[in-house]
C-alpha cells in the first residue's frame, strides 16, 4: 500500500511540475493575459479539472515562477557541499562560486522576463523574488554562517545587509541586462560585482 501511495505522490508531483512548466512557457510566449486555463491544459496534455487540483488560478501558477530556479540552486549547493572537486574550497570561495552560478542560472532561465513582469505587476502579495523562505535565501544563510565560522567575513556585517548586497546586485544586474536586450556578458559583469562585494564583506587583513 505504501509503495502505491509513494508512486501516486510521485506522479502527482510530476503532473504539477509539467503543468507549471507549460504555464510559465505560455506566459512567456503569449503573455499572461492571453493565456487561458484551457491553453495550459492542452499544452500539458491534461484536463482543466486536473489543473484546478494543483492550482487555484493562473495567478497562483505565475507566483511559482521562481520555483525552477530554486531547484537549480539547491542542486548546485549540494554539489558545493559534497562533491570532491569542491572539498578544499574555503567558505568564501564557495560563496563566490554560488554567486556566479546564480547569475548564470537566472540569465539562462527561459521565463526570466515573465518572472520580473509578474513580480512588478502583482503588488497585492509578497513578491516571490523577496520571499525569505525561498531556497536562495536559505543557501545564502548557510554560506554566510560558514564564512563567519572560518573567519573570512567581517564580524560586524549584519546578515540582512549581506542578503541585500548579494540579491540587490543580482537583481539589478539582471534587470539591466534585460533592459539592454542582453547586450553585455553576464559572467564578466558578475565578476566585477563580486570584486566590489568581496572588498566590502571580507575580513580586514
Shape designation: globular
User: What's the CATH architecture of the largest domain?
Assistant: Orthogonal Bundle
CATH topology of the largest domain: Tetracycline Repressor, domain 2
Please tell me how large the radius of gyration is.
Answer: 19 Å
The main pleated sheet reads as:
none
Average pLDDT over all residues: 90
Q: Low-confidence parts, pLDDT < 50 over ≥5 residues?
A: none
Give helix and strand order, one letter per element, not per position. Answer: HHHHHHHHHH
Number of helices: 10
Strand content: under 5%
Q: What's the level 1 CATH class of the largest domain?
A: Mainly Alpha
Overall number of structural domains: 2
Q: Pairing-aware structural class of the strands and helices?
A: mainly alpha
Number of strands: 0
Helix content: over 70%
Task: Report on the architecture of this protein.
By secondary structure, this protein is mostly helical. It has 2 domains: 57 residues, Arc Repressor Mutant, subunit A; 136 residues, Orthogonal Bundle (Tetracycline Repressor, domain 2). It contains 10 helices and no strands. Helix 5 packs antiparallel against helix 6 and helix 6 packs antiparallel against helix 8. It is globular. The N and C termini lie far apart (61 Å).
Amino acid at each position: 500500500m505504501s509503495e502505491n501511495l509513494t508512486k501516486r505522490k510521485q506522479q502527482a508531483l510530476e503532473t504539477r511540475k509539467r503543468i507549471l512548466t507549460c504555464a510559465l512557457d505560455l506566459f512567456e510566449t503569449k503573455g499572461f493575459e492571453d493565456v487561458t486555463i484551457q491553453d495550459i491544459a492542452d499544452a500539458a496534455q491534461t484536463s482543466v479539472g486536473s489543473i484546478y487540483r494543483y492550482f487555484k488560478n493562473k495567478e497562483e501558477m505565475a507566483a511559482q515562477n521562481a520555483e525552477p530556479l530554486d531547484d537549480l540552486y539547491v542542486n548546485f549547493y549540494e554539489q558545493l557541499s559534497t562533491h570532491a572537486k569542491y572539498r578544499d574550497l574555503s567558505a568564501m570561495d564557495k560563496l563566490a562560486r554560488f554567486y556566479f552560478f546564480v547569475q548564470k542560472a537566472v540569465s539562462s532561465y527561459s521565463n526570466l522576463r515573465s518572472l520580473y513582469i509578474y513580480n512588478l505587476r502583482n503588488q497585492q502579495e509578497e513578491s516571490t523574488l523577496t520571499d525569505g523562505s525561498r531556497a536562495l535565501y536559505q543557501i545564502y544563510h548557510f554560506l554566510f554562517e560558514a564564512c563567519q565560522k572560518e573567519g573570512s567575513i567581517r564580524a560586524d556585517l549584519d546578515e540582512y545587509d549581506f542578503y541585500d548586497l548579494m540579491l540587490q546586485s543580482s537583481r539589478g544586474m539582471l534587470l539591466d541586462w534585460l533592459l539592454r536586450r542582453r547586450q553585455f556578458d553576464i559572467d564578466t559583469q558578475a565578476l566585477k560585482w563580486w570584486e566590489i562585494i568581496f572588498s566590502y564583506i571580507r575580513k580586514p587583513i
